[in-house]
Design a protein that fits this description.
Length: about 575
Amino acid sequence: MAAALALGLAACGGSSSGKSGTGSTGSSSKNINTQPGNDINPQPREKIADGGTLRWPEAGISDQLNYNEVDGTDGSVSDIMAAVLEEPFYADAKGIPRNNTNLVASYTVTQSPQQVVTLEINPKAVWQDGTPVSEADFEAQWKALNGTNQAFQVSTTVGYSLIQSIKPGKSDKEVVITFSKPYSEWQGLFSPMYPAATNSDPKKFVADFKDAIPTSDGPFKLGSIDQTAKTLTLVRNDKWWGDPPKLDKIIFMSIDLDAQTDALANNEVDLQYGIGSHVSYYARVKNLPNVTVHKAAGPVWANLTFNGASGSPLSDVLVRNALTIGINRKQIDTALVGPLGVSTDPLNNHVLLTNQQGYQDNSGDLGKQDAARAKQLLDQAGWTSTDGGKTRTKNGKPLNLRFVINATSDSNKQLAEIVQNQLAAIGVQITIVPVPGDDYYTKYVNVGDFDIAQVVFGGNAYPLSTAQPEFANPTTGSDGTLNIQQNYGRIGDPAIDTLFTEALSSLDRTKAESYANQADAAIWKLDTVVPLFQRPQIVATNTKLANYGAPGVQDTIYENLGFVSGS
């Protein structure tokens, strides 16, 4: 069997049954992003009580639960659907993918004359209604996500566009995937995999999982959705063929970020994550009784995203460049993550993180604050000042940009205020626009109703596949709809797409890293996304919660979640 290239984290942790470090009290002052190991309270199944309810808060729960649909690529959807839909491969604590035998009993890979992956589906694998999971499910998802049918509004085509064909082998339980050119991160495809019925029709692709989860092939299935209480409850799937879930149910609860710490303190929820950029949350949770704070290197990074859509002041790259060198990222990072014991050196790569092999600084002159040069660029772009640099206008219109923030996030507000003060020095006015947390992405970021926004990109064991849709060149469908995938800056470059394709098709690690860094250098020149910091993964949990904490890139095995018995 040929080994595929893995550009995973060099040292990262996870949240399932893999080996890991022990729980943390949050007292360490080390730079988490350079520390090995993970932090999850790993426990064997026999030490976990049968039954119980896990109360899981989310800042908001998306109404689109198809993660592959353009409006469904949300952290809450990922958390929920990972308990409901199986993935062919799971990443371990080192980011190395291994086949999930509940779905893929075995597999083979050949590379000559073409890369061909053959998956043997577990004969017991069935959908909730008893329909066998089959080759047809893989084939339908490929056809929906490969980009050939613009009627499907997809969040990514990465990898799927490189598949030449998917056909049944000796039976419909054998999947033969032939690639048109080598693809190094193929194990990340079909994660998650939705049923053929949903992926066979563009309308069903949008509608089937809108405020609904009609089927499951995982350990849990939908119990109920309560729109009033803003909860989504999962219960055990009685058609599940793997190890029985330890939990009776998981209740996902939409709770504003600022209210989650109170909920944890009042024993209303069992965990709180997203602490990694909230100093005030961290200061509180580390002292709560019966709560363990877990820390690990995080595969997530925060950035400032500029809306470069036509007609916006930020459609001019000179203005974007001026903003980028007008801010002081070191000052931002020191304020937002310095108190958490992590590096305050700005992240200088859009594709690879500081603890990933191949990371290098490609920022050039854009990586350093230069207020004088920023002012020159604005003058060059036609935004001039007549009041000594306090304000700028062009054709009688003031340069006043809307920085849209999540009203429930204190760190969003702090970031916006720092940026507002820094850019005032070059004559750029910033109006801070707080919006409800539930609406932040769906009604503002996703649809481009902002000038500046903080966006957090999540990572996993497949950094190239993860980054490509974040910078993909937007395309216009036959109905005139712009498909941005996850490129919220709304500007792309075909050359960047080509570099990602080359990186993903290279099975030589050194060459893949070279292409990745060339892509990053081009992204810097495009300048719609300004990296701020690599977010540490800090998660507070009920001390009794087993096999969950700071998950890093390791996949969570939901049937192994539960509470330690007799504790």
